[in-house]
Amino acid sequence: MILNRILPGAALAISLLAAGAAVAATVITTAETDKGKALVDGKGMTLYVFDKDMPGVSNCYKECEALWPIMKARSGDEPQADFTIITRTNGDMQWAYMGKPLYHWAKDAKPGDTTGDGVKGVWHVALP
Question: How far separated are the first and last CA of the chain, in Å rounded?
Answer without folding.
Answer: 26
